[in-house]
Design brief:
The chain has 89 residues and is mainly alpha-helical. Helices cover 98% and strands 0% of the residues. The chain is built from 1 helix and no strands.
């Protein structure tokens, strides 16, 4: 009878240990899945803002080129005006 009782206690200890290990594994998996979910969300946001950044950077480059073109035209017209002013004097 004592053998059965000892065997029963050993089974309980093994079950408790297995349950604790299972809970640890489940907790680890849950933490990993939350981490992966956040990483995917972060990557999605990164890609979205990266795309917007590239678009804005392109618009900025176009604006800079247009600004340089306007400055060049302005300088050209100022030079023409100065030449005509010299001729009139």
């Amino acid at each position: 009878m004592s053998d059965t009782k000892i065997h029963s206690e050993k089974s309980k200890v093994i079950c408790v240990n297995v349950n604790e290990e299972t809970l640890k594994v489940l907790s680890f998996v849950k933490n990993k899945s939350e981490f992966i979910r956040e990483a995917i969300k972060d990557k999605f946001l990164y890609e979205k803002f990266r795309e917007e950044y590239v678009n804005l950077k392109g618009e900025l480059e176009k604006s800079k080129a247009e600004n340089e073109k306007i400055k060049t035209e302005k300088s050209h017209y100022e030079t023409k005006i100065k030449r005509k002013a010299k001729i009139i004097e």
